[in-house]
Amino acid sequence: MGSFLNGRFSMVAASRCFKILLPYKGTLIFSSSLVRGLGTHNYFTSSSVEFPCIRLFYPIVSKFAGNYNSLATQAAPDDEGMADEFLNQILGTYQNRPDSSRERCNVYVHKLCKAGNLSMAFRLLQSLRDKNIFVSAAYNKLLAAAAERNQIDLSFQVFKDLLVFHRQLSSACYLNLARSCTNTNDCAALIRYVKQVSELAFPNSTIVVNRIIFAFGECRQIEKALLVFNQMKGFGCNPDVITYNTILDILGRAGRVDEMIHEFTSMKEAGFAPDFITYNTLLNHFRKAGRLDMCLVFFKEMGDSGVEPDFLTYREMIEAFGRSGNTEVALRLFSEMKQRKIHPSSYIYRSLIDILKKAGKVDLAMSFLEEMNLYISDLSGSKDFKRKHVHSCFTTDIGILDMRNRGKQS
Question: Where, in residue numbers, are the PPR repeats (predicted)?
Fold first, then answer.
């Protein structure tokens, strides 16, 4: 116990001594010869600055002098004095070495988060922020740590700072924000926090709230996603086509097909025209639910509305009807696809060939095989499919960009 107290006293003493020396870091040169000199002199002078009795702390001070960067990796994570010293170091070196200072800050915040001292990490980052030093990577580490511990209050505080000072946030930020809400049932607090975020994000409020809804859906927090969606107008931002497409996909993935149809109807009643992403989302989830009757209904509505099916639409429809034994419908869709100048892929050909073989239509299957080999160079490849898939499927991040514009570009 005595050795522990002595060690603790030494750390505190070193901290206080280092605080005295820090203002003179520009004039004091901690060279090896100078440190060795501390062992034989009763005082230490530089210019007119005198430090009597510093030999008392020689073994400890030499550690600070010999390795100025060690605070970020060796300071006790629960020592507020050390955090203060580290803050002073960052402020003192940032102007001349900003990149190095940011990296050291990342390391120190990671250490604090690993030790569970998230509040101290946040206070440190706020102190730097108040000095116009914003270390976004450290904020991201803290947000991830808060998500792991389901600390919703801290997560939203960190998220709001990121939103104000960094603006364009990654998908990981939104997902971590949603994960931090996993264990909360306080709907009033959740809505209050999202409203604050919406106000900070103006004039991009709808984009940010859309991404929050999307993140809740990705984290399987369906009710929270619907809650935020239903409260959007109260935030002063209105839903758009992307909002509805996101909600349709969330409900579809949850198997809540009837609710999905209801929201689709509400979307049209609100004056929003469904786009090809809307219809692809509906058709995809009807197919997965085995509702091929609804696939035909909405596929027809898609055409009647002037929304042209794309590669992915036909691929999913052909495969769904072919594997269900409706080869005639699958073949009709395949013929229609080629008439629209949409190049089939080798995958669609192989799928049709396999379906026809199982249906006993071997001759027709062989004719499709010959056709595929004949036009192999003109078939849609994996790159074409991936590009269209990104624009058509909501398993991707909806991002800052408007997906409707991206869809038109494809």
Answer: 205-239, 240-274, 275-309, 310-344
Q: Could you give the 3-state DSSP secondary structure of residue 271? A: coil
Question: Amino acid identity of 131?
Answer: K
| Residue 261, CA distances (Å) to 310, 349, 395 in order | 21, 32, 20
CA 410 to chain centroid: 25
Q: Which of 14-18, 119-123, 229-233 has the weakest average pLDDT?
A: 14-18
Write out pLDDT tens, residues 287-313: 999 999 999 999 999 999 999 999 989
Structure token pair of residue 260: 């999905």
Beta bridge partners of 182: none
Q: Which CATH architecture has domain 240-410?
A: Alpha Horseshoe (1.25)
- Max distance between CA atoms of the chain, in angstroms, equals 103
Q: Which residues of 360-390 are buried (b: 16+ CB within 10 A; e: fewer)?
A: ebeebbeebbeebeeeeeeebeeeebeebbe
Q: How far apart, in whole angstroms, are the C-alpha atoms of residue 238 and residue 203? A: 12
Query: Which residues have CB under 8 Å from 77's CB, separation 6+?
Result: 111, 112, 114, 115, 117, 120
CA distance 138 to 125: 8
**pTM here?**
0.72
Residue-range domain boundaries for the chain = 1-66, 240-410
Instruction: Measure Cα distances from 370 to 351, 353, 373 in Å.
Output: 14, 10, 5
User: How far is the C-alpha of 119 from the C-alpha of 146, rounded, in Å?
Assistant: 10
